[in-house]
Predict the 3D structure of the following.
Amino acid sequence: MKAVPKPQIKQINLSINSKEIKKGETEKLKVEILPKEAEKNGITFTSSNSSIAKVDSEGNITGINPGKAVITVKSRENNVSSNIEVQIYSTVENMELNVQNLMLQVGDKFTVLPRISPSNASNQKVKYSSQNEEIIRISEEGIIDAVSVGKTKVMAITVDGNIQKEIEIVVKRKLEKEELEFDKQLKVTANEIAGWSDVPVKVKNAKDMIKTNYEIQVYNFKNELLNDNNLIGTGSTIKIIKDDDVLMEYKVIIYGDVNGDGKINTVDLLVLQRHILEINGLKDLFYEAGNINRNNKSPSTIDLLIIQRHILEYQFIEQ
């Protein structure tokens, strides 16, 4: 009697409950082999990008990182195959803003920068609103426009996750040039001051770079009043005061000084390392001071290298 040839796979049909898989979760790929007599024939599962989606020998697809990957199922005995594309997504878990409290003058603009966690979340869209648009207006892009004197709040809320944060804002009248003028080397943007040429900077030297007939008071990031011989550091506040009324206040940024002591040294290296290792993340102005190469991204090993070069006096950080 002539032997009956082993049935070969002629077609592979694939289906899945959802082609969108959340990072860290698993979906089972359903495989139909035709003809049915060939169901016991061997098949292989492969992913076009295992850093995005992994698949095991049973067809279980696990999301690794956001992105798209193609899962291919192939017969071991011939070239019959089929594939299916899956989308891996990551949800928003938290959001921080680059500022929590803000003092502006009428006419000032300030850009809100949301920092989404995880940084590779799929939908990072944020919606903004103002509690009082007669005082503050804010665009879809997060640009604040100080319209009139007063106090109000701006709200930011993530589309994914519905995480909400607020910024308390005080708007002051516009100070005239004869009332307040900064040295040309300083970079003053809304309520932030950078551009210090000689770091570290004593309070007295900082005051000398500000021309005003009003009183100047300087506080560190702990809100402690500094004397003229103290150093200003990241997070320090320079207040312009008339008769106990704060006319305006400015926040100090010293790039590379991520602990607020006004120096750039090995302590800053340690603080930045802890941020990179996600042990203790930098926030607010300290986050900005750690982003030394100004790429609007989270401080990284590149910024760490820049601080090292500064400490070794190979190349000083431009403020």
Q: What stands out?
A: The two ends are 90 Å apart (CA to CA). The chain has a mean pLDDT of 94.
